[in-house]
What we know:
Elements: H1 5-21, H2 35-48, H3 53-65, E1 75-76, E2 83-84, H4 89-99, E3 103-108, E4 110-119, H5 120-127, E5 146-148, H6 153-163, E6 167-171, E7 177-182, H7 183-191, H8 199-203, E8 207-211, E9 214-218, H9 227-230, H10 242-250, E10 259-261, E11 265-272, E12 277-284
Helix pairs in contact: 1-2, 2-3
Amino acid sequence: xxxxxxxxxxxxxxxxxxxxxxxxxxxxxxxxxxxxxxxxxxxxxxxxxxxxxxxxxxxxxxxxxxxxxxxxxxxxxxxxxxxxxxxxxxxxxxxxxxxxxxxxxxxxxxxxxxxxxxxxxxxxxxxxxxxxxxxxxxxxxxxxxxxxxxxxxxxxxxxxxxxxxxxxxxxxxxxxxxxxxxxxxxxxxxxxxxxxxxxxxxxxxxxxxxxxxxxxxxxxxxxxxxxxxxxxxxxxxxxxxxxxxxxxxxxxxxxxxxxxxxxxxxxxxxxxxxxxxxxxxxxxx
Length: 285
């Protein structure tokens, strides 16, 4: 009982919040709330309008998610984009321009022999300090985190939080690579059929790497999230997002294709959405 008490306490506190949403101020006599009771409260909230339909569906999906194994959320081995441990940084950047991912498994000979994980941002940060294009990617890869395909996704989420990693190699029972699973894959599994409804949220953090000096970035991306990608900090006391910052540089609403420069970057407006900058192409000078 001591082991499971923290989980019970969390459900207990969560139920208090849901009860308050329904105007119930007095706590039930029992300090324990079952999963079915919480599901019932969510359903009642949907019927009475206290919880919006999309929120209701998402909450039910989260409960279903508790029984999901990582094999249901992973990218299977046949769809993986990997890079050889002998490849150069220049070859890695070419792969990025073709695939657009920010992390790649580094393999030796075949996909069943993953040596580590290459984070493209690690390369980009080093690029700002020295020429590394001819160096091997193995110099920059991080240690891989291996898990069995039968691990529950909820367990993996907890491990990701504690150990601060966002990607894991999924192994089959014979020691081969079954696939990869990322934090983004898990979030997509939770949201499931609600993806279109939440598409705008996921688009806000979009960063597409063209090459080591060129990036296409969503206008809603916060400035403080770009430092690691760009290798330099963009400071502004007036704006929080890159779209707002570029708008401020123009001093007016620019047209698609217009450009503006600072000492470190050239900014081109790629898209406008409802009289705001939707996408920006940033080139390091």
